[in-house]
Amino acid sequence: MNTKVKGYFLGAIAAATYGTNPLFALPLYKDGMDPDSVLFFRYLFAIPILGMMIKGRGRSFKIEHKAAVPLIVMGLLVAFSSLALFQSYNYMEVGIASTLLFVYPIMVALIMALVFKEKLTLQTVFCILLALSGIGLLYKSGDGTTLSLTGVLLVMASALSYAIYIIGVNQSTLKNVATLPLTFYILLFGVSLFFVRVGFGKDLYIVAKWYLWGNLIALAVFPTAISFLCTTSAVQYIGSTPTAILGALEPVTAVFFGVAVFGETLTPRIGCGILLIILAVTIIIAGSNITSHLIRFRKLFPRLPLKRKGKMNG
């Protein structure tokens, strides 16, 4: 296997592993575990994994004192993004919500233009219109019901908060912090939000079946450690732009599991909407200067899908 093929393969694995979330999360939800408890354990288990990766690469845990407050803010911002997306899955299908979340690179480009005065190119405007057209085609789910406005607003809030996080860590004192230590502290401070939401441990759901602990560990290992290692390796082999473009496999994988596992319907209209959004984001990534931002602070800890209320007992 030559270097380029290996790079593309690793990039595809990095993106596709995000789609393993429902496979491990579904048994936990069936057992009655609530989203806050799942996210608490996921972050908690991921922290030592990142710690071992830091030690294994010979990096330091030390950070400057002035970076502490920005780290706390960014950690809470990422945690809020997780919660917002969790709630959105109560109102729409997993595949559609995951595709809508994928517009965050466009939000990054738009914020950079409006706030930091980067030139807003015709290409960016075209991609925004393309993405809006795709979203318009998703206005109805596979079963014919109109998308919930609440669900759309929640997933957009999740995408926006993540876009702000990406920009924030690149425009603050955190831009000089190495990716591994940065992610370690983001999770460390982010888990505090879930700890508060589970009543400081009082309302934390503890799984009774021993094998379900394997699901919790898998959620921390596959979409986190494995995806992170594959992403960084792919960047070394093929560069940041092709690796970022391969991120389009994230919503594709989510749609696949939505159809295959959750029984969601993929109509030609929904398929076209998904393709338009993926195309718009791919063009943005390939033709702008935000690629390095997206790669360095990629979603290492994607959010877990919830079964929609109408299907919770299905």
From TrEMBL:
It comes from the Bacteria. Residues 6-139, 150-285 form the EamA domain. Keywords: Membrane, Transmembrane, Transmembrane helix. One of its GO terms (cellular component) is membrane. The chain crosses the membrane at residues 7-26, 68-89, 95-115, 122-139, 145-165, 177-198, 210-231, 243-262, 274-295. InterPro entries: AA-Vitamin_Transporters, EamA_dom, EmrE-like. It is found in: Membrane. It is a multi-pass membrane protein. The keyword Coiled coil does not apply. The keyword Chaperone does not apply. Belongs to the EamA transporter family. This is EamA family transporter. It comes from Parabacteroides merdae.
